[in-house]
Each structure stands twice: as C-alpha cells, then as structure tokens.
Specification:
The complex is a heterotrimer. Chain B is built from 12 helices and no strands. The two termini of chain C are 33 Å apart. The chains are: A alpha+beta, B mainly alpha, C mainly alpha. The interface between B and C is large, with 89 and 90 residues.
Amino acid sequence: MARVDVANVSKRFGPVVALDDVTFSFADGRFFALLGPSGSGKTTLLRMIAGFEEADAGNVSIAGEPVDDVPVEKRDIGMVFQNYALFPNMNVHANVAFGLDVRGIGGPEIKRRVGEALELVRLTGYDARRPDQLSGGQRQRVALARAIVTQPRVLLLDEPLSALDRSLRVEMEIELRRIQRDIGITTIFVTHDQEEALTMSDHIGILNEGRLVQHGPPLEVYERPNSVFSARFLGEANLLAGEASPGTISLDAGTTVKATHDTRGRAMCSVRPEKISLYPSGCAPAGRNILSGIVREHIFAGNSLTYRVECGGEIVRVFAQNLTGDVFGEGTMVDLIWEPKDTVVLADV
Amino acid sequence: MSGTRSGSGLASIGRVYLVFMLLFLYVPIIVMAAMSFNESHLYRLPVEWSTKWYERLAGNNKLLDATLNSLLVACATTVLATALGTAASLAFFRFEFRAKNLLRILAFPPITIPWLIIGTAMLVFFFWVGIGRGLHAMVLGHVALALPYVIIVVSARLSSFDRALEEAARSLGASAWQTTFQVTLPWLAPGITAAALFAFAVSFDQFVISYFLAAPGVTTLPVEIYTSIRKGFTPEINAISTIVIAVSMTLLLGVSRFYRFGGRS
Amino acid sequence: MKQRTAILALTGPAYVWLTLTILLPLSAMLYYSFLSDVPIGNRVAHLTLENYAAFFEKSFYGDLMLRSFRLGVEVTIYCLVFGFPCALVLAKTIRGRSREALFLLIILPFWSNALVRIFSWTMVLRGNGVLEHAVAWFMPDAGPLNLMFTYPAIIVGLVHSYIPYMILTCYISIEAIDDHLIEAARSLGAGRLTVLFRLIVPLAMPGIVAGAVLIFIPVIGSFMEPRILGGRNGTFIGTIIEDQFTAVFNWPLGAALSFIMLGFVLLILAAMTPVIRRVT
C-alpha cells in the first residue's frame, strides 16, 4: 500500500496535448476516481502511473520513490483493463497465479493465495474454467483477483465497468468498493461515467483537455463546482449569466439573487435542477432566491418530474419529486425558488 | 504501445534485426540484377557495366516464348481458380450442410502433399487417360494448386462479413442473386483481388508441376530456366528474371495502394 | 431442394476439378506403384509388391528418406528461429505506414521466381563469388569458403525460399494478440522474456504450426534446390523420385517411393494433430 504522487507531468502525442502540467497526490489507501470525457488525458495519466507511458516532463513517484526509470514489471502495481485482458491460453487459476508465478513464489503458497483471491471475488471453484467460458461479470472478477493477488502497492482500474450492462455494473460497483475497503489498497479508477465516480470514490479528480480542472470529495465537487466544465460534466446544471457584485448576482433573466461569493463583473452561476422548488406564481415563501417563468414542458417519470421553465428567454430545468400527484401544466406561470447557498458562482465566464 | 523507456533499446535492436533480414531476403535478387548488367558471362567481379544480355534476350525466342506461355497459363489459372474458389467459399459461408467440413478438408491436399508427388501423379494420370502434356495440362494442375489459397483468402474475408447487410438487402426487396452481386461480392472485392494475386503468383512461380507436365518444346519460364541452368547457364536468364521481378514488384506495389496487406482489413 | 442445387452449383466445379487433378491422379499413381512395368505400348505389366520391397531391401532409400526428413526439420527450425523474431518486431514494435511498407518488402520476394532466387544464390555462394568477395573485404586472411555444392548451401537456399511463409503466418497470429494482454502481463510483474515465452509464443502457436507445415512439406519433397545448390551432395529422396520419372523411366518405383514419402508426411501430420487441435 502506498501513496502515489504525480508532479508537473506533461505528455504530448504529436500535436495533441494529452496532459498539461498535472500535479496531484493520491493518498494511501483511498479510492480515487479520475473523471473526464474521452481525450481528457485521464487514461494517459493512469498509464503513466502504470509505466506504459513516459512523461515528457514531470515525475511520478510511488511510496515516495521516483519510478520514472522503473519499468512496468518492477513497479509492483495491479491493473484491470477495460476489456479485462485475461490470457486466453490460460484457465482462471493460471491467470490469477501468473503474477505470483513470475515472482517465483512456490506451489503451495500460490494455491493458497489464488484460492483466497478467488474467494474474495466470489469465484471459488472456477479455477479450471477458461476465459471464454465466463460471463462478462465473471471475467471482470477474475481480472480483479489477478490484479490484487500479488498485493500490489497500487490498484489501477481503466474503465473496468464500461463493458458490463447496467444492472451488473451497479452490482460490481458495490463489490469493487467492498473489496477495496477490505484490503485497503490505494486505488485509482478511470471513468467517463459521473455516476460511477460519485458512488464509488473517496475523491474525484475532473480532467479536461489534459488539465486537472477540479478535485475533492464527491459531495464537495458536486455541490461547489468551480467551473462551467465541472458543473456541466458532473451532474446537471442550469447555467445563468449575470452581473456579480459581492453577495449578489443580477441575472440576465431578470432578477437579482443572493449567493456566497465576493467577485465582481460578468459572471456565470450554476444552480442544480434538484435544488429548485416550483410554486404557483405569487405563492412563493419569502427569504429565498426567486425567479419567475412559464412552464414550457413537463416530463413525467413516475416518481419524479422534470420541468423546462422559460425564464426571461432562458430555459431552466427543474427536478421535482412527485409528492402530491399535481403537475404544473404547460403555460402555467410559476415561481422558481432556491437557497442562496445553492447559487454557485463559477470562476470562468 | 510498448515504447517505454526500457523498451526503446530492445525496439532498436529489433529494427536492426529487421534490416538484416531484409538484406538476407534481397541479396540474391540484387546480385542477380547486378549480374544481368555484368559484361562477363562468368559473373566475374567487379561488375563491368553492359546491357548486352538484354540485347541478346531480345533475340532469344525460346526464352520469350516461354515467358509468354507462363503469362498465358497464369492468366487462365487466375481466372479459373478465383471463380471456382470464390464460388465454393460463398457456399461454405452461406449454407450449413453435412459435407461442409469434409469438403473444406478435401481442398487442402494441394498444400499438404509435396508438389513433387502431385506433379508426378498428374503426369502418370494425364498420360494414361490421354490428356497428355502441354499448356492445357499445366492449367489443369495450376488451378488445383491455386484453389486452396483462393478458398483460404476469400473465406478469411467472408468471416468478417456482417450477415445483417445481406438481410438488409433482402428486406429491401433484393433477390438472392441481386444480393450476392450487389452487396456480397462488392464487399468481398479486396479479398477476391488478393486471392487472384495469390493464384497468379502460384501459377507464374510454379516450377515443379510445370516441369513434369511440360511437352517437349512447349515450356514455361521456370522450366526453361531450370533446363538452361542444368545445361550451362546464360546471363540472359538474369536479364529476363530482373525484368520479371521488376514488373511484378511494380504491379504488387500498385495493388497495395488499394489493398492493405499489413493489417486486419 | 433449392439450397441443395445452389450448393452443388457453387461447390461442384471446384471439386470436380480437384477430383480430376488430385484424387484421380493419386489413385492412378497408387495403382502404378504396384505394377512391374509401365503399361505402355506392348509392354506387359503385372501387379507386384517389389517396388515397395525395394525400399526396405536397400538401406540406400531409407537413408535418403531420413536425409530428406532431416533437411525438412532443419530448414523449418531455421525459418522459425529467424522468422519469428522478424514477425514479432514487425507486428509489435513498428507502427503505422512504415509497418505496411516493411511488410510489403518482406512478402515481395514471394512474387519473384523461386528458381531464379535459388540460382542467384549460386552467384553469391560460388568460389570467387559475391560472398567470398564480401568476406575477403572484412577478413583478408579468411581464404576460400567453398560453400557451393555443400549441405549448408542447400539449407541457405531453402531457408531463403521458405522463410517468408513463416514470417507471414507468425505475423498474422502475433498481430492478432491484443496489446492489453501484454500490458496486463507486464503490470503483473512479467519481464519481456516471460511475456514472450508464457504469452506471445503460446498465442502465436497456430501461426507457428501453419508456417511449419507449409515449409516442411515442400522441403521434404524438394529436388530442384538440392540439385542446383548441392551438386553431388544434393541427392535426396526427392531427386531420386524425379529421376524415376524423367531419366530412368521407372514410373512404378517412383510411384512407390512417392507413396512411402507421403506416408511419412501423413505420419508426421498425424503425430502433430494433438498440437494442431489444441491450438486451433
């Protein structure tokens, strides 16, 4: 188990900048998610930690030791690949035993440790199966057992759940989290799926165009996005432009609302759709931020509703619980209400 | 991507090795080309530049006739083997039938039996039933040799064919034949081109079968070359071989612009 | 019924052709191998086993069969040892357009005449030839090599002729190996040699076997290469069989020797069947 540090790493592939001066510490024993769209550099960062890519500039260290000149096989890492990369010429047992075998560990111990690893991923008794006889979820588990059986210092996961169907993915998310907690290994998980990142990790890092845009615990990153990109990429956000002065922002949509910030000038603020409540026009309680509009569309989804409300020319999305069974019809005049603390003024315009 | 720091040393060793391998593969060809321009018929070194063997070649009707025969046989073989092999591959791809595996295996003897045996067997049989020797007998033999290659190459291309394309065509109202000619065959075109190239090469390069089936006076280029090597070689052979290699390499390079050989297509 | 007609129409021509040119000739030759003489003109031939008996009575034929077998094995091994690394470098180290170009360069010699390539080697290997000049350039004291008309000369010529097969078949199976498998092995602590022998070689086995079969079979029956490069040392079972058909005109003996050789080949293929079955 160990911490991983990347310091000022940059990487180009020809004219494409994959990573641009990224610095980050992955603390010991925690579960990190690197989140970003494709081409954001998240996979390059992971592969650099693994040793498959060489940084043009900057350093990577594991447990405080620089590993820039250490080849992959000497870094003592475990990695799970998107397509699992199970060796097709070996059965489950041989796949899991491979890492122990190349380390020169003897027969009885291999048998014991492979048994333990398979038990951990709940595949006891599957030793003799070949990879092509396994389901997607089972292959995933074998790949995980193979990666952790050597007790590596870091576990690297490259979009390991993306090939699974939805229900299996949810099951594996829980499973993966359980196993990570059980063995307490530093884990870095690359994904483009925000839900996966939010549910599984202790800490999220959002990458865009090779830069680390924002990082922090999931709740903090979600509640306080620092940029338009973060706000949009993680969850859904209504982005409202306006003129800011400390404590308030005068929206182009027509009202002045309160917020917790101290910037001045043109600004963009984000309000999450689920933070907004709808009231019939004129019935809203006082003391909160208020914006008037007309319901243009409502989408009914059983337990919840999504409204599209036009406010001064802009469309604002609102999520509402189906508490009463009443629905605001199209064309209804409504007031949108939310707390000042949920108005997040973003750094960039 | 294995271009990591520790791998770059090994990678350059690999490249150097590849260069040596290419050198090994090309040395004889280069030597032959050089000798075709060498004045001395005893291949004395160093090379004294001369085009006299090319001039002599222009007057050597035996060699020129043999070359023409080779081309004739190769073209006939290409057309026949490609058509027959493609048809059989289509049947294997399209239909499930009991004899399929047996038929597939039966296509392979031309590869798995030494040519020497096939050639002598053809000689015996053709002689016996009155087909005799000559260019027609060679075409018979060459097509048989080229068939397995055509079936392998076309089947490989077919195996990555998406049947949904055929189904889509049928659902749009195309008949089975229309589907075959307007959807399946155009998609197969690169595979068929490659197969035809193989068939041509197998025939044009074929020596063993031709050697046993050549009638006196009617030979192909490889047989003529072998005869003259055994009788005492003349450098005109270097000249014609150089021309043949130059032409075939140019053709292949031309074709490679349309068909990727290196990757999974 | 309609499907049956289509199958017959599509496969029929190819298989009628193969019957006429492979199956019937082999049957005819099998029949000839039991004849006492060629039944041409007014010669009288009767059925006999003496052609087969000849093989077992004279150790000469058996020795030549073993010599051909050894030649086949050696050429196959050299092709594997030198061709496999070449395919590996090509498939896994070199990328993009240069790979396509190099691949083309390697298969180009295929399209030049095999016979001509063999003859070119005589110009390289002969006394006072290209190789001796090249060696003298580097090591002036080396003296003549006298490689021409020797067993090694035959090996060099045959390896040169057949190595593109091995490179091609190995390349195809190595290229199909997912790079992630190699990365996975390395992330588990495997060094490059371990990756090669535990992963790449087993996964490339179909290509290796295919290449070996494609090389071994023609080499064991080769006669042109040994005659040109081996001279007096170039007597193999293939050259003996050729003599029966073209010089001695003893077709029945040639046929019998051919079938004994074919039996050897089939025995070897049968012995390798478990390996082939495992990898395909």
